[in-house]
Amino acid sequence: MLQKNLMMLILLSSFLFSATNYTVRLAVYKNTAKLQKAIASYPSALKETVKTYQRNGNTYAYTLPTADKKTLNKLLPAYRKVFKDAYISPTRLK
């Protein structure tokens, strides 16, 4: 019984940690104010999905992760109206 439970726990954890989500990588800016101004030009529904973080003096913009890649493909043209080089990228759940 313990061995069966342990095996189920291992299988479940490997499934959870290997699930792939997707995000739209929007932009990398050195000037955070310019990036925030560009993000502000999106309609509020899109703006709410954009997140930023800073690393090594740069500010990165991306969308909230989702498993629904089909929806991201539909939204990609809207994201590209502001950030022409935006692209969909897989991201691992942690």
Order of helices and strands: HEHHEEHE
Catalogue the unreliable spans. 11-15
**Could you say which overall geometry the principal axes of the C-alpha atoms support?**
globular
| Highest-level CATH class | Alpha Beta
- Major sheet characteristics: 4 strands, antiparallel
How helical, in percent, are the residues? 40-55%
How many helical stretches?
4
Protein structure class: alpha+beta
Distance between the termini: 29 Å
Main sheet: strand order: 2-3-1-4
Can you walk through the features of this model?
With 94 residues, this protein is an alpha+beta fold. The chain has a single domain (19-92), classed as 2-Layer Sandwich (Alpha-Beta Plaits). It is built from four helices and four strands; from the N terminus they run H-E-H-H-E-E-H-E. A four-stranded antiparallel β-sheet has the order 2-3-1-4, covered by helices on one side. Strand 2 and strand 3 (58-63) form a beta hairpin. The longest helix has 17 residues, at 2-18. It starts with a helix and ends with a strand. Residues 11-15 have low confidence and may be disordered.
How is the topology of this model organized?
Elements: H1 2-18, E1 20-29, H2 32-40, H3 44-47, E2 50-55, E3 58-63, H4 69-80, E4 87-92
Write a short abstract of this structure.
The chain has helices at 2-18, 32-40, 44-47, 69-80, and strands spanning 20-29, 50-55, 58-63, 87-92.
